[in-house]
User: What shape does this take?
Amino acid sequence: VHRYDVESDILAQAIVDYARDRLRLDPVPLDGSRSWADLTAAVGEMITPDGLGGVEVLGIFDKLLSRACISVDHPRNLSFIPAAPTKAAALFDLVVGASSVYAGSWLEGAGAVYAENQALRWLSDLAGFPPEAGGVFVQGGTLGNLSALVAARHTMQSRRTVAGRGAEPTRWRVACGSDAHSSVQAATRVMGVDVLVVPVGADGRLTGAALARALDAADTDIRDSVFAVVATAGTTQFGIVDDIRGIVDVAHERGIWAHIDGAYGLAALAAESVRHLFDGVAAADSFIVDPHKWLFAPFDACALIYRDPALARSAHAQKAGYLEVLESPDAWNPADYAIGLSRRARGLPFWFSLAAHGTRAYSAAVEKSLATAQAAADQIRALPYVELVRDPQLSVVVLRRLNWAPENYYEWTDKLLQAGFAFVTPTVHEGETVTRFAIVNPCTETADIAAILATMA
Ligand SMILES: *Cc1c(COP(=O)(O)O)cnc(C)c1O
Assistant: This one.
């Protein structure tokens, strides 16, 4: 099974053909979920003592399993945050898989890490971070936020020790807005720390002033226990960008780490038309952005970048006798910057596509989604039976269908998916069920939006 033989060659051809055919489809089939029982009846047990043969298994994946997965790159898949990998990025993922690269350390993965770091550098420069900034591609925004917060707490602990500020608080705290992503709460649960939830304004934004008020109103021991503030650069629900400048300033006045969660929204740093919304990012201590969301990379990749990577290294680097060989002053070991040790060079598909197409193509593709979102908002304003819940800031459009009960939304979602036409899920905002278009695919046209809206009439 480890030698390249005739069978491997036949399989190689079949797999390359499969990949080529999938990438060629335009549009891709939307496909849909199937129940466990249904899949068991159709597919059944495939792991056997003697094996079924690669071509046979690939055929079952092609005909049955892949079709029981909703295509995230369908232009009318507007649910959650979908994805739209470039062909170059998707193809290069095959190369990464074939190359047996260990990308946790410079010693083993220098070439891959060098390339990944170029992609991180582009993002870091877009954010206005200094030349010494850097980080790592992790699995997703959830691990990115967790890793940044662990570095923030470690930094605060060391500073307190050095300053002789004595005992740690009984519970550390992270401050964030009431619309921060659920992964911030998840990270604090893992870390065993509390959250100081600061209310957002009527416009959905967390401001520096609200943060300062919340900190000032808190008891001294609570105020002293806040080691990080998370500002959201594009909420998942609405695409709202917090008052980043104000939040970072208030955090820094008080010696608190400022982390920017831009998993979805910071991709729009590449778009000249909305760059001003992110004013203040350059002063933050860390940020994340997911190339698998709005930067056209396949799952899974989150860029996690620190202003001062040495702080992250001292929090995250694992120490062991067998790892000492990896330590050298100019070795950039990605594993030192996040939770995790072994890692796939998951930043490479993004790097390859950026290098192949150039950054201008990325700016244009992000601008395209922004324009489609504005066009969607215009269409909604013009129709009598729907209305915007808020004006979109980035590329998420939330709308209500007048006179629909929650079950109408769910039935409508099922109907569109079953027809293989679109995938648009409901969401709940302030107790009300509404629906939401998350537009990150440059192939989503205003005609697609019009066709979806027509089905709500
Ligand atoms: C999607 C998202 C996350 C979580 O990212 P994953 O890659 O899904 O783990 C965190 N924050 C925001 C704002 C997001 O949109």
Remarks:
- Residues 359-382 form the longest helix (24 residues).
